Amino acid sequence: MNNIESYVNWRGDISFDERPLNEVDNIVFCTLSYLDMKGFLGSDEFITLRDLYARIMSYKGLDIKTADKAVDRYRNFLFCASQSDRFGNVIVSDYVDIYDESRDLQFSAVVFHTDKKHSFIAFRGTDETLVGWKEDFIMSFSKTAAQDMSLKYTKAVLEKYKDNTFFLGGHSKGGNLALYTASNLSENDLERINHIYINDGPGLCEDVFTDINIERIRGRTTKIIPEFCVIGKLFDTQFNNCKIIKSSALGMLQHDPITWTVEDGGLKTCHENSPESVWINQTLGQWLGGITIDERKKIVDSLFDFIKSKGIVTLQDFSDKKGFNFKKILSSFIVDEGKPTKHKFSPLSLSSLFGRTFRKIKNAKIIGTLKSSPAAKAAAIIFFGILFLVLPETFILVSVAAALFLIISVYIFKTVRCLINSGWDFKQNQSRVYTAIALVTVYAIIILKQNALFILSSTVFGIAFLCTAYNYAERVRGADNLPDNVWFMSKAMLFALMGLSILVVPSSSIVFYSVLAGLVFVADGIYRFIRLASGKKGGGA
User: Fold this and answer.
1) Smallest Cα–Cα separation from 100: which of 135, 68, 66, 65?
2) What is the CA radius of gyration of the chain?
3) Are 2 and 246 in contact (CB under 8 A)?
4) Which neighbouring-strand residues pair with 196?
5) pTM given for the model
6) Which distant-in-sequence residues (6+ apart) come within 8 Å of 12 by Cβ?
7) Reduced to 3 states, what is the DSSP secondary structure of residue 477?
8) H-run or E-run covering 520
């Protein structure tokens, strides 16, 4: 899929005089803010992006200050942007990068001048430092040092370039800083802000910021979030202009702006967020709504103080190569430090995450209805047949992913219940906890690793089709008339053929045979209804 790198290649020869700054340019600048410029750009220095890139490459090479420090993922984009006319000629200045552990402060910002009168202030999001991540959590109960710094920085930049008008933007935490800053500018300063861009950034917690008037900036703010959005929905601040963007990534990886899809020089949008992310946001909202600000502070301070006591400073320190990993740290926290606050995590683990879902499934009595009602069973078969027809490959992938998720959720639910019943005795339930962590890890690998879910789904459905074929073959012996006998035998042969083909050559056959399976299911459902209408029983499994 096309992304901001594609956009730079398409529009790289068009200057900002010819085409003014747009929402995709905003994402380009906010992504560029993750480039480590420390030591290469003085506080009073002005340099083109092209020359800055050359300077960095000649000394040490690229370094990206993203949470995962994924330099390779950004390498081509940075090169293309720096060599294009549109971005390579942009003047870069006023770079700051501040890290202060004593103040729980991680802050970085930079100004991009598109011409002599227009500038873009980009705030960097969370980097790989533990301080940066703690600051994200602090947003749930207090104003952060980075928010104060962003307002101070912006006022200084506005004062320095008195003849310029500005755009404010940021990705992730940077989007929150842009929102906070714009909300707190004076009326005179706000008049010089052309637009504010919040790129998958959290809003402002209403429990903390009770006196901010968002109406002042609502009309000049654009919020951009991916289809699977969690970060950008935290403390969700509503804006009239909110765009949901398609992404080439899966799940939480859609938070990375370089995965956002571009088409025809603009962002490729969709109508709504994915159901999975909506459910996660509802759950997090219920949990945060159930604990006070003081309780949030105690939980965050306890967790990060404990992690810090283990000598962990960056996310890379969780690597097994250094003797740490998050599984061990979190397990130790639960055992050693978690008891005073464990009841605050319980609603998230049990009631919010699983309780309502299990109650809905139980109350629905779907399985009992299908067993007792032939008409309901026939309708269900037609419904699944239509799903196979309309979404052949997608339905198979989603079905397997959802089934795995349900199985793992049930196991985690039982594990947490065992922990609660034992007074959070981790040692007593150690094997269950490690198994749950292993299941989650395997599930994440299956979902995120390219083609892993496809291979697993092909195998599962190939075997399922073979079992269905065997079931129909067995029913041939029990059929009491020729039409049923022929119908069962035909379906047995078809499902056997489909199962074997999908197992042997899934990439070239799964879509075709999924559609064929859909036709068979629809025909089977219709056949069942015909049998019911004629007053006869039978017709399927």
Assistant:
1) 135
2) 28
3) no
4) 168, 221
5) 0.63
6) 80, 81, 83, 84, 85, 86, 87, 88
7) helix
8) helix 506-533
Q: And the tokens for 392?
A: 């052949």
Residue corresponding to tokens 């994402």: 27
Pairing of strands 262-263, 241-245: unpaired
Strands 221-226 and 118-123 turn out to be unpaired
Distance CA 255, CA 175 (A): 12
Q: CA 378, 383, 389 angle in degrees (round to 5)?
A: 125
The token pair that represents 145 in the structure block: 């040092």
pLDDT tens across 474-489, in order? 776 665 666 667 777 7
Structure tokens at 435: 């198994």
More confident residue, 450 or 240: 240
Name the helix (H) or strand (E) containing 384. helix 374-390
| 8 Å CB contact between 170 and 177 | yes
Tokens of 359: 């109650």
Q: Are 169 and 122 in contact (CB under 8 A)?
A: yes
Q: Is 73:35 a contact under the CB 8 Å cutoff?
A: no
Do 354 and 512 touch, CB atoms closer than 8 A? no
CA-CA-CA-CA torsion sign (412, 417, 420, 425): negative
Residues 6+ apart with CB under 8 A from 398: 391
- Residue 359, pLDDT above cutoff 50: no
Rounded-to-integer distance, Cα 378 and Cα 510, Å: 24
Residue among 277, 193, 293, 292 nearest 232 (CA) = 277
Reported as a single tens digit per residue, the pLDDT across 187-216 is 999 999 999 999 999 998 888 887 778 899
CA dihedral 146, 147, 152, 155 (to 10 degrees): 130
- What is the rounded CA–CA span in Å between residue 445 and residue 253? 13
| Cβ atoms 132, 87 nearer than 8 A | no
- CA distances from residue 484 to 480, 490, 492, 519, 524 in whole angstroms, order as listed: 7, 10, 12, 18, 11
| CB of 81 closer than 8 Å to CB of 88 | yes
Q: Are 169 and 123 in contact (CB under 8 A)?
A: yes
- Report whether 190 contacts 182 (CB < 8 A): yes
Contact (CB, 8 A) for 90 and 48: yes
DSSP state of 247: B
Cα–Cα distance between 72 and 83 in angstroms, integer?
18
Q: Does residue 332 have a pLDDT over 90?
A: no
Q: Give the separation between CA 153 and CA 159, rounded to whole angstroms.
A: 10
- Please name the helix (run of DSSP H) or strand (run of DSSP E) that holds residue 430, with its range, or none: helix 430-448
Tokens in use for 148? 């104060």
Candidates 286, 297, 302; CA nearest to 346 is: 286
